[in-house]
Amino acid sequence: MIIEPRIKGFICTTAHPKGCEKNILNYLDYLDNNAKINLPNLKNALVIGASAGYGLASAMTASFSLGANVIAVAIEKNAKANRTATAGLYNLAAYKKQADARDLYLKTVIADAFSRQAKEKAGEIIKNELAPIDLLVYSIAAPARTDPDTGEKYSSVLKPVNKEYNAKGIDLSSYLIKEFSVAPASEEEIASTVKVMGGEDLKLWVEYLSKNNILSENAVILAYSYIGPELTHDIYLNGSIGAAKSHLKQTSDELNNLYKVKSYAVVNKAVVTQSSSAIPVLPLYISILFKVMKEKKLHEDCAEQVYRLFKKLETGENLTDGNGFIRIDDWEMRRDVQNEVAERWAAVNNNNLSELADLNGYRSDFIKLFGFGLEGVNYSEDIDAAVDETALGIINLTD
Fold first, then answer.
1. Which of 25, 51, 81, 348 is most buried when burial is the number of CB atoms within 10 A of its CB?
2. Are 300 and 57 in contact (CB under 8 A)?
3. Would you say residue 68 lies in a domain?
4. What domain range includes position 136?
5. 236 is catalytic
6. Does a structural domain hold residue 1?
7. Are 245 and 197 in contact (CB under 8 A)?
8. CB within 8 A of 174, min separation 6: which ones?
Protein backbone atom coordinates (compact mmCIF):
# COMPACT_ATOMS: atom_id res chain seq x y z
CA MET A 1 0.00 0.00 0.00
CA ILE A 2 0.91 3.68 -0.32
CA ILE A 3 0.78 4.97 3.24
CA GLU A 4 -0.28 8.48 4.13
CA PRO A 5 -0.84 10.06 7.55
CA ARG A 6 -4.41 9.95 8.83
CA ILE A 7 -4.63 12.28 11.80
CA LYS A 8 -7.62 12.64 14.08
CA GLY A 9 -6.97 15.16 16.82
CA PHE A 10 -4.04 13.88 18.87
CA ILE A 11 -4.04 10.44 17.22
CA CYS A 12 -2.48 9.32 13.95
CA THR A 13 -4.11 6.07 12.82
CA THR A 14 -1.41 5.13 10.30
CA ALA A 15 2.36 4.67 10.51
CA HIS A 16 5.08 4.35 7.88
CA PRO A 17 7.63 1.51 8.21
CA LYS A 18 10.37 3.21 6.19
CA GLY A 19 9.85 6.48 8.03
CA CYS A 20 9.99 4.76 11.42
CA GLU A 21 13.15 2.99 10.29
CA LYS A 22 14.63 6.36 9.36
CA ASN A 23 13.84 7.60 12.89
CA ILE A 24 15.77 4.63 14.29
CA LEU A 25 18.72 5.28 11.98
CA ASN A 26 18.76 8.92 13.07
CA TYR A 27 18.78 7.79 16.74
CA LEU A 28 21.64 5.45 15.95
CA ASP A 29 23.62 8.17 14.16
CA TYR A 30 23.37 10.32 17.27
CA LEU A 31 24.57 7.51 19.54
CA ASP A 32 27.39 6.57 17.16
CA ASN A 33 28.59 10.17 17.12
CA ASN A 34 28.89 10.28 20.91
CA ALA A 35 31.26 8.45 23.22
CA LYS A 36 30.37 5.03 24.59
CA ILE A 37 29.13 5.02 28.17
CA ASN A 38 31.11 3.10 30.74
CA LEU A 39 28.66 1.32 33.03
CA PRO A 40 30.17 -2.18 33.22
CA ASN A 41 27.79 -3.27 35.99
CA LEU A 42 24.78 -2.79 33.70
CA LYS A 43 25.18 -5.78 31.40
CA ASN A 44 21.58 -7.00 31.15
CA ALA A 45 18.69 -4.59 30.71
CA LEU A 46 14.93 -5.04 30.75
CA VAL A 47 12.95 -2.12 29.32
CA ILE A 48 9.20 -2.05 29.94
CA GLY A 49 7.48 0.21 27.40
CA ALA A 50 10.34 0.08 24.90
CA SER A 51 8.66 0.90 21.60
CA ALA A 52 8.62 4.73 21.59
CA GLY A 53 9.72 7.85 23.40
CA TYR A 54 11.95 7.56 26.44
CA GLY A 55 11.56 3.78 26.67
CA LEU A 56 12.78 3.24 23.10
CA ALA A 57 15.62 5.70 23.61
CA SER A 58 16.61 3.89 26.82
CA ALA A 59 16.65 0.48 25.15
CA MET A 60 18.69 1.77 22.21
CA THR A 61 21.14 3.62 24.45
CA ALA A 62 21.59 0.45 26.53
CA SER A 63 22.25 -1.54 23.36
CA PHE A 64 24.44 0.77 21.31
CA SER A 65 26.16 2.97 23.93
CA LEU A 66 26.50 0.50 26.80
CA GLY A 67 26.69 -2.71 24.76
CA ALA A 68 24.17 -4.28 27.15
CA ASN A 69 21.97 -7.28 26.44
CA VAL A 70 18.41 -5.94 26.17
CA ILE A 71 14.92 -7.38 26.52
CA ALA A 72 12.36 -4.93 25.13
CA VAL A 73 8.71 -5.31 26.18
CA ALA A 74 5.86 -3.38 24.56
CA ILE A 75 2.26 -3.81 23.39
CA GLU A 76 1.93 -3.17 19.65
CA LYS A 77 -0.09 -4.37 16.65
CA ASN A 78 0.94 -5.68 13.24
CA ALA A 79 -0.66 -4.66 9.97
CA LYS A 80 -4.02 -6.18 9.14
CA ALA A 81 -6.17 -5.72 6.02
CA ASN A 82 -5.99 -2.00 5.15
CA ARG A 83 -4.55 -1.02 8.52
CA THR A 84 -0.83 -0.40 9.01
CA ALA A 85 1.12 -1.74 11.94
CA THR A 86 1.61 0.60 14.86
CA ALA A 87 4.60 2.92 14.81
CA GLY A 88 6.02 1.17 17.87
CA LEU A 89 6.20 -2.16 16.06
CA TYR A 90 7.98 -0.56 13.11
CA ASN A 91 10.38 1.08 15.57
CA LEU A 92 11.15 -2.23 17.26
CA ALA A 93 11.57 -4.05 13.94
CA ALA A 94 14.09 -1.46 12.71
CA TYR A 95 15.88 -1.48 16.08
CA LYS A 96 16.10 -5.29 15.95
CA LYS A 97 17.61 -5.18 12.45
CA GLN A 98 20.31 -2.76 13.59
CA ALA A 99 21.06 -4.74 16.76
CA ASP A 100 21.34 -7.97 14.76
CA ALA A 101 23.65 -6.29 12.24
CA ARG A 102 26.02 -5.42 15.11
CA ASP A 103 25.68 -8.81 16.78
CA LEU A 104 24.06 -7.24 19.84
CA TYR A 105 21.63 -9.24 21.97
CA LEU A 106 18.05 -7.96 21.73
CA LYS A 107 14.92 -9.91 22.50
CA THR A 108 11.66 -8.17 21.62
CA VAL A 109 8.50 -9.28 23.40
CA ILE A 110 5.16 -7.94 22.18
CA ALA A 111 2.84 -8.29 25.15
CA ASP A 112 0.69 -6.44 27.65
CA ALA A 113 3.33 -5.38 30.17
CA PHE A 114 0.72 -5.47 32.93
CA SER A 115 0.03 -9.17 32.39
CA ARG A 116 1.50 -12.16 34.20
CA GLN A 117 2.26 -13.63 30.78
CA ALA A 118 4.68 -10.81 29.95
CA LYS A 119 6.55 -11.23 33.22
CA GLU A 120 6.74 -15.00 32.82
CA LYS A 121 8.05 -14.77 29.25
CA ALA A 122 10.66 -12.17 30.22
CA GLY A 123 11.63 -14.35 33.20
CA GLU A 124 11.97 -17.40 30.98
CA ILE A 125 14.30 -15.54 28.59
CA ILE A 126 16.39 -14.18 31.45
CA LYS A 127 16.75 -17.63 33.06
CA ASN A 128 17.57 -19.44 29.83
CA GLU A 129 19.67 -16.89 27.99
CA LEU A 130 20.97 -14.19 30.35
CA ALA A 131 22.38 -13.58 33.77
CA PRO A 132 20.17 -11.63 36.20
CA ILE A 133 18.88 -8.18 35.21
CA ASP A 134 21.14 -5.26 36.17
CA LEU A 135 19.00 -2.46 34.73
CA LEU A 136 15.21 -2.20 34.75
CA VAL A 137 13.65 0.75 32.92
CA TYR A 138 9.94 1.35 33.48
CA SER A 139 8.46 3.69 30.87
CA ILE A 140 4.72 3.13 30.71
CA ALA A 141 2.05 5.55 29.48
CA ALA A 142 -1.15 3.55 29.16
CA PRO A 143 -4.85 4.34 28.83
CA ALA A 144 -5.95 1.23 30.70
CA ARG A 145 -4.78 -1.75 32.75
CA THR A 146 -6.31 -5.07 33.66
CA ASP A 147 -5.46 -6.23 37.18
CA PRO A 148 -3.68 -9.59 36.76
CA ASP A 149 -5.20 -10.96 39.99
CA THR A 150 -8.83 -9.83 39.77
CA GLY A 151 -9.27 -9.33 36.02
CA GLU A 152 -10.82 -5.92 36.71
CA LYS A 153 -10.07 -3.25 34.11
CA TYR A 154 -9.05 0.27 35.13
CA SER A 155 -8.80 3.35 32.91
CA SER A 156 -6.57 6.39 33.39
CA VAL A 157 -7.83 9.95 32.96
CA LEU A 158 -6.11 13.30 32.50
CA LYS A 159 -8.20 15.49 34.78
CA PRO A 160 -7.73 18.03 37.57
CA VAL A 161 -8.57 17.26 41.18
CA ASN A 162 -11.20 19.09 43.27
CA LYS A 163 -11.79 21.94 40.80
CA GLU A 164 -12.46 22.52 37.13
CA TYR A 165 -9.43 23.32 34.99
CA ASN A 166 -9.68 26.21 32.55
CA ALA A 167 -6.80 27.21 30.30
CA LYS A 168 -5.86 27.99 26.76
CA GLY A 169 -4.31 25.32 24.60
CA ILE A 170 -3.87 24.24 21.00
CA ASP A 171 -6.69 22.43 19.25
CA LEU A 172 -4.74 19.80 17.31
CA SER A 173 -7.45 19.47 14.67
CA SER A 174 -7.00 23.11 13.63
CA TYR A 175 -3.72 24.14 15.31
CA LEU A 176 -5.46 27.20 16.70
CA ILE A 177 -5.50 28.42 20.30
CA LYS A 178 -8.77 27.76 22.11
CA GLU A 179 -10.01 27.85 25.66
CA PHE A 180 -10.35 24.41 27.23
CA SER A 181 -12.30 23.34 30.26
CA VAL A 182 -11.81 19.99 32.00
CA ALA A 183 -14.12 18.78 34.77
CA PRO A 184 -12.48 17.45 37.95
CA ALA A 185 -11.84 13.74 38.34
CA SER A 186 -14.00 11.71 40.67
CA GLU A 187 -12.42 9.78 43.52
CA GLU A 188 -13.00 6.61 41.51
CA GLU A 189 -11.25 8.08 38.45
CA ILE A 190 -8.26 9.17 40.55
CA ALA A 191 -7.95 5.71 42.11
CA SER A 192 -8.27 4.09 38.68
CA THR A 193 -5.56 6.35 37.23
CA VAL A 194 -3.24 5.41 40.08
CA LYS A 195 -3.92 1.71 39.36
CA VAL A 196 -2.88 2.22 35.74
CA MET A 197 -0.07 4.76 35.91
CA GLY A 198 1.16 4.40 39.49
CA GLY A 199 3.78 2.07 40.84
CA GLU A 200 1.77 -1.11 41.41
CA ASP A 201 2.87 -2.82 38.20
CA LEU A 202 6.49 -1.74 38.64
CA LYS A 203 6.47 -3.38 42.06
CA LEU A 204 4.99 -6.56 40.56
CA TRP A 205 7.83 -6.69 38.02
CA VAL A 206 10.48 -6.26 40.71
CA GLU A 207 8.79 -8.80 42.98
CA TYR A 208 8.67 -11.33 40.15
CA LEU A 209 12.31 -10.83 39.17
CA SER A 210 13.51 -10.96 42.78
CA LYS A 211 11.40 -14.01 43.70
CA ASN A 212 12.86 -15.90 40.74
CA ASN A 213 16.45 -14.82 41.52
CA ILE A 214 16.83 -13.01 38.21
CA LEU A 215 17.42 -9.50 39.59
CA SER A 216 20.98 -8.55 40.40
CA GLU A 217 21.96 -7.17 43.76
CA ASN A 218 22.27 -3.39 43.41
CA ALA A 219 20.33 -3.47 40.13
CA VAL A 220 19.47 0.01 38.89
CA ILE A 221 15.74 0.72 38.44
CA LEU A 222 14.62 3.81 36.52
CA ALA A 223 10.95 4.80 36.62
CA TYR A 224 10.16 7.68 34.28
CA SER A 225 8.05 10.62 35.37
CA TYR A 226 7.30 14.28 34.68
CA ILE A 227 6.65 17.29 36.89
CA GLY A 228 6.47 20.32 34.61
CA PRO A 229 6.08 24.04 35.32
CA GLU A 230 3.56 25.74 37.58
CA LEU A 231 1.27 26.67 34.69
CA THR A 232 0.55 22.96 34.02
CA HIS A 233 0.39 21.82 37.66
CA ASP A 234 -3.39 21.95 38.02
CA ILE A 235 -3.91 19.55 35.11
CA TYR A 236 -0.79 17.44 35.63
CA LEU A 237 1.16 17.49 38.90
CA ASN A 238 -1.89 18.25 41.07
CA GLY A 239 -4.25 16.27 38.85
CA SER A 240 -5.16 12.61 38.50
CA ILE A 241 -2.00 11.76 36.58
CA GLY A 242 0.09 13.57 39.21
CA ALA A 243 -1.47 11.35 41.88
CA ALA A 244 -0.34 8.35 39.88
CA LYS A 245 3.17 9.74 39.43
CA SER A 246 3.35 10.43 43.18
CA HIS A 247 2.46 6.79 43.79
CA LEU A 248 5.16 5.75 41.30
CA LYS A 249 7.75 7.78 43.24
CA GLN A 250 6.61 6.32 46.58
CA THR A 251 6.85 2.84 45.10
CA SER A 252 10.31 3.51 43.72
CA ASP A 253 11.47 4.64 47.16
CA GLU A 254 9.83 1.62 48.76
CA LEU A 255 11.71 -0.76 46.46
CA ASN A 256 14.99 0.48 47.92
CA ASN A 257 13.83 -0.65 51.36
CA LEU A 258 12.37 -3.98 50.24
CA TYR A 259 15.15 -5.13 47.91
CA LYS A 260 18.85 -4.62 47.43
CA VAL A 261 18.38 -2.28 44.49
CA LYS A 262 19.04 1.32 43.51
CA SER A 263 15.65 2.58 42.44
CA TYR A 264 15.11 6.09 41.12
CA ALA A 265 12.21 8.15 39.80
CA VAL A 266 13.56 10.09 36.81
CA VAL A 267 11.94 13.40 35.85
CA ASN A 268 12.27 13.94 32.11
CA LYS A 269 11.82 16.98 29.91
CA ALA A 270 8.56 17.60 28.08
CA VAL A 271 8.64 16.14 24.58
CA VAL A 272 6.07 15.49 21.88
CA THR A 273 4.42 12.13 22.47
CA GLN A 274 0.97 10.80 21.71
CA SER A 275 0.16 10.76 25.42
CA SER A 276 1.36 14.35 26.03
CA SER A 277 -0.69 15.50 23.02
CA ALA A 278 -3.80 14.29 24.83
CA ILE A 279 -3.40 16.93 27.57
CA PRO A 280 -4.90 20.14 26.10
CA VAL A 281 -2.45 22.57 27.65
CA LEU A 282 0.75 20.66 26.83
CA PRO A 283 0.96 21.13 23.03
CA LEU A 284 0.90 24.90 23.53
CA TYR A 285 3.35 24.76 26.43
CA ILE A 286 5.68 22.42 24.52
CA SER A 287 5.56 24.60 21.39
CA ILE A 288 6.58 27.67 23.40
CA LEU A 289 9.16 25.71 25.39
CA PHE A 290 10.79 24.31 22.25
CA LYS A 291 11.06 27.78 20.73
CA VAL A 292 12.75 29.14 23.85
CA MET A 293 15.06 26.16 24.36
CA LYS A 294 16.10 26.13 20.69
CA GLU A 295 16.92 29.84 20.87
CA LYS A 296 19.03 29.15 23.96
CA LYS A 297 20.56 26.03 22.32
CA LEU A 298 19.25 23.83 25.16
CA HIS A 299 16.73 21.73 23.24
CA GLU A 300 16.97 17.93 23.50
CA ASP A 301 14.94 15.08 22.07
CA CYS A 302 14.42 11.71 23.77
CA ALA A 303 17.70 10.25 22.53
CA GLU A 304 19.71 13.23 23.78
CA GLN A 305 17.90 13.25 27.13
CA VAL A 306 18.46 9.56 27.79
CA TYR A 307 22.09 9.73 26.72
CA ARG A 308 22.63 12.55 29.24
CA LEU A 309 20.78 10.50 31.89
CA PHE A 310 23.12 7.55 31.35
CA LYS A 311 26.14 9.87 31.47
CA LYS A 312 24.89 11.06 34.88
CA LEU A 313 24.69 7.44 35.99
CA GLU A 314 28.23 6.95 34.72
CA THR A 315 29.69 9.79 36.78
CA GLY A 316 27.34 9.39 39.76
CA GLU A 317 27.85 13.08 40.58
CA ASN A 318 24.90 15.09 41.93
CA LEU A 319 22.65 12.27 40.80
CA THR A 320 19.49 13.23 42.72
CA ASP A 321 17.86 16.37 44.05
CA GLY A 322 16.72 16.94 47.63
CA ASN A 323 13.57 14.88 47.02
CA GLY A 324 15.45 11.92 45.61
CA PHE A 325 14.53 12.53 41.95
CA ILE A 326 17.00 12.30 39.11
CA ARG A 327 16.26 15.55 37.26
CA ILE A 328 16.86 15.41 33.53
CA ASP A 329 14.35 18.23 33.16
CA ASP A 330 16.89 20.61 34.70
CA TRP A 331 17.43 22.57 31.48
CA GLU A 332 13.68 22.86 30.90
CA MET A 333 13.19 24.14 34.44
CA ARG A 334 16.02 26.67 34.38
CA ARG A 335 14.74 29.98 35.72
CA ASP A 336 15.63 31.93 32.56
CA VAL A 337 13.85 29.37 30.39
CA GLN A 338 10.68 29.29 32.52
CA ASN A 339 10.56 33.08 32.88
CA GLU A 340 10.65 33.45 29.11
CA VAL A 341 8.05 30.70 28.63
CA ALA A 342 5.74 32.39 31.16
CA GLU A 343 6.03 35.76 29.40
CA ARG A 344 5.22 34.22 26.04
CA TRP A 345 2.38 32.16 27.50
CA ALA A 346 0.72 35.33 28.79
CA ALA A 347 1.13 37.09 25.45
CA VAL A 348 0.45 34.33 22.92
CA ASN A 349 -2.62 34.38 20.69
CA ASN A 350 -3.56 33.16 17.22
CA ASN A 351 -2.00 36.23 15.62
CA ASN A 352 1.46 35.78 17.12
CA LEU A 353 1.49 32.01 17.70
CA SER A 354 4.12 31.24 15.05
CA GLU A 355 6.30 34.07 16.35
CA LEU A 356 6.24 33.08 20.03
CA ALA A 357 5.99 29.28 19.68
CA ASP A 358 7.57 26.61 17.54
CA LEU A 359 4.34 25.32 16.08
CA ASN A 360 6.02 23.92 12.98
CA GLY A 361 8.49 22.06 15.19
CA TYR A 362 5.63 20.57 17.20
CA ARG A 363 3.80 19.47 14.05
CA SER A 364 7.00 17.99 12.63
CA ASP A 365 7.82 16.08 15.80
CA PHE A 366 4.24 14.78 16.02
CA ILE A 367 4.10 13.28 12.52
CA LYS A 368 7.65 11.95 12.87
CA LEU A 369 6.40 9.82 15.77
CA PHE A 370 4.52 7.84 13.12
CA GLY A 371 7.28 7.84 10.51
CA PHE A 372 6.08 10.76 8.37
CA GLY A 373 7.85 13.93 7.28
CA LEU A 374 11.38 12.53 7.32
CA GLU A 375 13.98 13.41 4.70
CA GLY A 376 15.17 10.61 2.46
CA VAL A 377 11.96 8.56 2.62
CA ASN A 378 9.97 7.92 -0.56
CA TYR A 379 6.40 8.29 0.67
CA SER A 380 4.94 7.59 -2.78
CA GLU A 381 6.40 4.08 -2.76
CA ASP A 382 4.01 1.13 -2.68
CA ILE A 383 5.26 -0.96 0.26
CA ASP A 384 4.31 -3.93 2.40
CA ALA A 385 2.92 -2.63 5.70
CA ALA A 386 3.34 -5.92 7.59
CA VAL A 387 6.30 -6.73 9.84
CA ASP A 388 7.74 -10.22 9.45
CA GLU A 389 7.95 -10.93 13.17
CA THR A 390 9.11 -14.52 12.69
CA ALA A 391 12.07 -13.54 10.52
CA LEU A 392 13.12 -10.94 13.10
CA GLY A 393 12.65 -13.28 16.05
CA ILE A 394 10.05 -10.99 17.61
CA ILE A 395 8.04 -12.83 20.27
CA ASN A 396 4.37 -11.89 20.02
CA LEU A 397 2.19 -13.01 22.93
CA THR A 398 -0.89 -11.16 21.66
CA ASP A 399 -1.59 -13.47 18.70
1. 51
2. no
3. yes
4. 7-396
5. yes
6. no
7. yes
8. none
